[in-house]
């Protein structure tokens, strides 16, 4: 049993050091909530929490065995409990400190509904034109089509209603 604890401790420690120096919290299990694929927050099953649990489980089990505790069941229970507590603390650190300040792009960053812009290429009837708009300080362009099938001249202000297959449906914006 001591070998299992030693292996868990060293594997957890080595992987933790590798991730610390080379990055890559690439193992993060998320639960699918039906049709919605948004992430409400970090999962408890992230690599940092799992490795912290594994390392503490192995270290605590090995240490308790070395100090003379003879009940294997009690050693395992204490080691599992300690591993879960430390894993939970790592999760709280991850959720409250690290994830809170993560400004990675989210699905909502790609929703262009309501975006105001100006046509750089006119829309002729049911044809396709192009609009320019500013998003997060960058001027961007997008293929557009009139929602009502009307012609809209170059330079007109338009607002995006929705985007379908890379082409936005727009309507004329009036001040």
TrEMBL record:
Database matches in InterPro entries: NA-bd_OB-fold (IPR012340), NfeD2_TM (IPR058653)
Domain Membrane protein NfeD2 N-terminal transmembrane: 2-100
Keyword Transmembrane helix: yes
Keywords: Membrane, Transmembrane, Transmembrane helix
Gene3D superfamilies attached to this UniProt entry: Nucleic acid-binding proteins
Residue ranges of the TM segments: 47-65, 72-95, 115-135
Protein name: Membrane protein NfeD2 N-terminal transmembrane domain-containing protein
């Amino acid at each position: 049993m001591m070998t299992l604890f030693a292996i868990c401790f060293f594997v957890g420690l080595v992987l933790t050091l590798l991730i610390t120096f080379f990055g890559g919290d690439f193992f993060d299990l998320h639960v699918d909530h039906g049709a919605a694929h948004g992430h409400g927050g970090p999962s408890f099953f992230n690599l940092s929490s799992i490795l912290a649990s594994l390392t503490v489980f192995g270290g605590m089990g090995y240490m308790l065995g070395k100090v003379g505790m003879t009940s294997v069941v009690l050693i395992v229970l204490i080691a599992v409990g300690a591993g879960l507590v430390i894993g939970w603390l790592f999760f709280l650190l991850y959720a409250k400190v690290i994830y809170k300040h993560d400004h990675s792009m989210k699905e909502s960053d790609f929703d262009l509904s309501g975006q105001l812009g100006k046509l750089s290429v006119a829309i002729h009837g049911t044809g396709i034109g192009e609009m320019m708009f500013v998003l997060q300080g960058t001027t961007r362009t997008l293929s557009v089509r009139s929602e009502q099938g009307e012609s809209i001249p170059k330079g007109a202000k338009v607002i995006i209603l929705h985007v379908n297959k890379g082409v936005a449906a727009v309507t004329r914006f009036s001040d």
